[in-house]
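Summarise this fold before class:
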Amino acid sequence: MTRKLVIVLANANPYSDEAIGAPIFQASVAAAMGYQVEVVCTGASAVILKNGVAASVHVKTAEARSIYDFIQEAHAAGARFHCFSTGLDACDMCKNDLIVECSGVIGAAHFIEEIMSDDCRVLTY
């Protein structure tokens, strides 16, 4: 049975290293552990998937790596990133604004189907 983890970034401040760093790191760890991981960004948090935004946020002032570096690491480990359709509207973005690591835009039906499966766990930030 496939084990799935969906991490929802809905209320996490995308410009706060503390709020956005931990869920991205957890996505990377879970993917490395063999979980099927999906990170869904919605509301104001969706802006983290906009080109250039994650690259400007650092976990610590002295940390050379940006949140974008952590997104790339999680993606390389197998985590998939999605923008919720309402997140595009909330952040005044279009699909062309999204980073290449974003697997696409999802809507409510896909989201509900994913989280209602028996093998899925959901973390919300």
